[in-house]
């Protein structure tokens, strides 16, 4: 065999080799990369024995602090059991992070794989031909997301805030039931800010972990002495509902125009597209949540009550 032929075969061999990962005695083969973020990536993997597919989240840790954050995420997955919150199948760490010797570790989280992808994917597909969702479907999905958020906000002994609620963090089952995922930014619902240093730290963390076009105004400019609570998620819920109606968050639209998201959020600017696709009642539900002043923003129970009332009103008219 000539050198060229051998070289081609060797290259082909390299292309065909799939990565295998052993997690607590179970072997998985990596099929493809599903997504990548600033702190992690997600691969589609298959159990080599059962042939069942999963989503494998990989978090690279560059320090002991990174490892603590990854472990905190794993712990949230383990204790937050709800039909509309993604479950953790398995997890492990490989390696040991040490900033002094430039070593890293990696956290592996095995999660269910949803073939339909995320709510963001679903809305993107429908946006191509302006195929608007039916109001009843919007409210059904929205109320199920609300139930997941209520579970977090009512969690005992300490309520929890998600802090990165967005359409890309909501998976859809085959029946289009929403499943809240990515608990990496979860934390205690109430955060007491005592001074400029605390405020800057929380603001920087929000800039890293909370998506800008779904981020509550109080996280853009954190006051030196204040309490940030779970109503940051209510703002994000308002943006999610708007996106379910018009395919994007109101501040995605601002961002795409090249305007300042920061200024638009702080001013509470909401521009509903012209047309008669949705009633004023649904627009009012969005406005109900997108209150710039967090003290004027409702808690999750009031949101659910208002959404359920509107849903019943629609159903009686059908």
Question: Would you give an account of this structure?
Answer:
With 318 residues, this protein is α+β, with helices and mostly antiparallel strands. The protein is built from ten helices and twelve strands. It has helices at residues 3-16, 64-79, 119-127, 135-153, 196-209, 231-246, 250-257, 261-267, 280-289, 300-317; strands at 20-23, 26-36, 40-47, 53-61, 90-98, 103-112, 160-161, 170-172, 178-180, 187-188, 191-194, 225-228. The protein has a six-stranded antiparallel sheet. A two-stranded antiparallel sheet has the order 7-10. The chain has a two-stranded antiparallel ribbon with strand order 8-9. Strand 1 (20-23) and strand 2 (26-36) form a beta hairpin. The longest helix has 19 residues, at 135-153. The N and C termini lie far apart (74 Å). The model has no long low-confidence stretch (mean pLDDT 91).
């Amino acid at each position: 065999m000539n050198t060229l032929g051998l070289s081609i075969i060797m290259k082909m061999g390299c292309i065909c080799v799939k990565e295998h990962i052993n997690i607590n005695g179970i072997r998985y083969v990596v099929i493809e990369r599903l997504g990548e973020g600033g702190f992690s990536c997600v691969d589609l993997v298959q159990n080599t024995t059962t042939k069942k597919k999963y989503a494998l989240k990989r978090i690279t840790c560059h320090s002991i602090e990174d490892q603590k954050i990854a472990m905190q995420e794993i712990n949230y997955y383990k204790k937050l059991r709800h039909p509309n919150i993604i479950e953790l199948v398995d997890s492990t760490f490989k390696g040991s992070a040490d900033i002094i010797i430039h070593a890293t570790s990696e956290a592996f989280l095995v999660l269910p794989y949803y073939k339909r992808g995320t709510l963001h994917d679903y809305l993107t597909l429908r946006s191509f031909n302006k195929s608007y969702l039916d109001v009843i479907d919007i409210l059904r999905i929205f109320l199920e997301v609300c139930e997941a958020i209520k579970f977090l906000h009512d969690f005992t002994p300490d309520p929890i805030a998600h802090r990165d609620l967005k359409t890309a963090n909501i998976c859809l089952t085959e029946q289009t039931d929403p499943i809240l995922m990515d608990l990496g930014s979860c934390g205690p619902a109430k955060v007491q800010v005592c001074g400029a240093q605390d405020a800057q730290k929380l603001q920087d963390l929000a800039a890293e972990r909370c998506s800008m076009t779904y981020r509550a105004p109080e996280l853009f400019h954190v006051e030196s002495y204040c309490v940030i609570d779970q109503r940051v998620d209510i703002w994000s819920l308002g943006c999610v509902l708007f996106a379910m109606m018009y395919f994007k968050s109101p501040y995605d639209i601002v961002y795409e125009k090249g305007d300042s998201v920061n200024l638009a959020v702080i001013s509470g600017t909401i521009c509903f597209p012209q047309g008669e696709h949705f009633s004023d009642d649904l627009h009012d539900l969005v406005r109900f949540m997108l209150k710039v002043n967090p003290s004027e923003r409702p808690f999750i129970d009031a949101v659910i009550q208002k959404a359920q009332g509107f849903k019943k009103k629609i159903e009686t008219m059908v």
